[in-house]
Structures are given as C-alpha cells and as structure tokens.
Amino acid sequence: MKKSYYVYNNGTLKRKDNSMVFINEEGEKRYIPIETVDEIYVMGEMELNTKLINFFSQHGITAHFFNYYSFYSGSFYPREKLVSGKLLVKQVESYTDKEKRLDIAKRIIDGASFNIYRNLRYYNGRGKDLKSYMDKIEGLRREISKSKDIKELMGYEGNIRKIYYEAWNIIINQEIDFTKRVKNPPDNAINTMISFANTLVYTKAISAIYETQLNPTISYLHEPGDRRFSLSLDIAEIFKPLIADRLIFSLFNRNQINDKCFTKGLNYLHLNKETSQMIVSEFDQRMKKTLKHKDLNRSVSYEHLIKLECYKLIKHILGEKDYEPFKIWW
To answer: Which Pfam family is one of those matched by this entry (predicted)?
Structure first.
C-alpha cells in the first residue's frame, strides 16, 4: 500500500535502481521502494538531482518542500498523467462565466463556514460557552448566498473567520492571547501553528487533484495566479476546520504544544524539529483515520474525502450533478 513519506534529517536523496535511497550526514542509508511511495515531504536540507525528479515523474509522485522554519517552499507536480480536453474546457468556462464561478465559490464558502460552525458547536457541547460566536457566524452564513461577486463573498468569509478565531481563546485551554490571523510571516505561536497545519492540508489537496483530471491552476474562490496551485487553496478551505483546526485544538489542549516548542527569540516563528515531527505524525494519523461515509455506505479515510471532493467538483463542472461541498455530518 502506498503512503506518504516525511524526510526530516539532512542528507542526500537519490535514485538507486527501483528505489529511492536516503543517505544521512553520517553516511547511513535507507532504501525506500518506489512502489510504496504516494508522495514525499522534504522537511530538511536535502540534496537531490534531476535523475530523482525524473524518477518521481515516471511514477506520478508529488514532492513537497519545506524550509528551515517549517514554511512551505513549493511542490514538484509531475507531468499530468490524467488529462481531459473536455474537462479542461469546461473548467475554464466555469471560471470565465461570472455566474458559474460565483456559484462554485459560494458553495465552497458554504461548506467551509458550516464546518467552522460545527467545530464551535462541538466545543460548545463540551463546557465551552461559544453560543454568541455561533449566532454571529450563523447570521453571516445566511448572507453568503446573497453575495453579488467574489469580493463581497470573501468579505463574508473574512468576517466569519475573524469571529471564529476570537473563539479560539475559549476553545484552547492555554493562555494564547490570539487576536488576529497574521501570515507571511506569522507573529506568534498560534499563527505559526495555523500556517503549518494549513499548509499540510493544502499539500494534500495538491496530491489529491493530481490523481484526477482537474487542472490545479484554475480556481473559483481564490484568484488564479502565477506560481501557485490555486484550486488546491479552494479545496483546502473546506477541510481546514476538520483537519488543521481540530489538530491544533487537540495538541494545545493535551499540552503537546507549549512555549518550549518554538524558538522564542524568533517571536515563536520557528517550530523546533521535534515538535514539527510530532505535528506531522499526528497529522498523518488523522489523514489515515476512517469513517463510515453517509452516501457511499463504506469506510473512507480523511485523505480520501479530499479526493472525493475533487470528483464531486468534476461532476458539477461537466453538468452531471450539482456540487455539494463536504460538510461534517457527525
């Protein structure tokens, strides 16, 4: 069975026959058969060459790269193995037609905001007084369908997330003093955690899209642009509350994350190696977690839910079935 590999130690990664071989700085070797690799995350300083990249391309392996600060640097997206001219034309049409694009974007925000609401409801039922935040978000959710353009829609989304993030000070059982979301770079421990966890979800969306015939650069909520897979941002938006946010809540509330997990001198910007590894391990376990799908009547993993979202979007774009975003049903 294929799986994700996370490489943290510095060294060299190269091809050896039908395997990848990782050689650490002490010269120790670890062989990884290529048929077991679904995707690879390079989390440390790594030397590799075009021979390995070509090997990845031949086997359809996506590779995601992170820098010293655990910030996402970029991904290697192999030559597309599943292509459809018909779908590409329809995908572009759904973007260039303002009504079609806005309709898909509204559906994405509807799903994402519903999952945000369910997170608040979950913790409200466990001794946290979050009713006022829930009411405000529910009020804003009713306005989503009234949005006249993407800018207005993103305004509602931003207000929903602002209220949601204010509630984190109640959800998390630590003194976090979280007032606003700050990126590029994060300015405190919570923002660093959000950036890291969100990026992990984003890279999973990249890999899921690669397994379909969708073009990753044509998106609906986020504006397509150079040097990014903007459709992955759209898909990730729906799953961040379930995967990234709940992971953060759990890690803080189990005291697996504290001030010692960050480099204080860098304004909590840098996760230490041990913490980053622990977060990735917890994340990977969650992606493998299964649940009984209410429509398919079989067990599927969280990771497969993301791929199913891509297939639902394809059916919508082709006019086969209206897109209904993933919403937490349990």
So the answer is: Cas_Cas1
The CATH number that domain 3-76 falls under is 3.100.10.20
> What pLDDT score was predicted for residue 245?
98
Q: Answer yes or no: is pLDDT of 267 > 70.
A: no
Global confidence as pTM: 0.91
Angstrom distance (rounded) from CA 207 to CA 38: 9
Q: Which ranges of 172-229 would DSSP assign to H, the alpha helix?
A: 189-210
Arch. (CATH architecture) of 85-317: Up-down Bundle (1.20)
Residue 237 counted as an annotated binding residue = yes
Instruction: Give CA 326 to chain center in angstroms.
Output: 14
d(CA 310, CA 317): 11
Tokens of 17: 């026959």
Q: Map out the domains of the chain as residue ranges.
A: 3-76, 85-317
* Helix count and strand count (H, E) for the chain: 10, 10
Q: What are residue 72's DSSP bridge partners?
A: 66
Report d(CA 174, CA 226) in Å as an integer.
Answer: 39
Residue range 23-37, pLDDT digits in tens: 988 899 999 999 999
Asked if residue 157 belongs to a known ligand binding site, the reply is yes
Please give the distance of CA 293 from its chain centroid, rounded to a whole number. 20
- Count of CA atoms in the C-beta half-sphere (13 A) of 116: 28
Q: Assess whether pLDDT exceeds 90 at residue 270.
A: no
CB atoms within 10 A of CB 18: 11
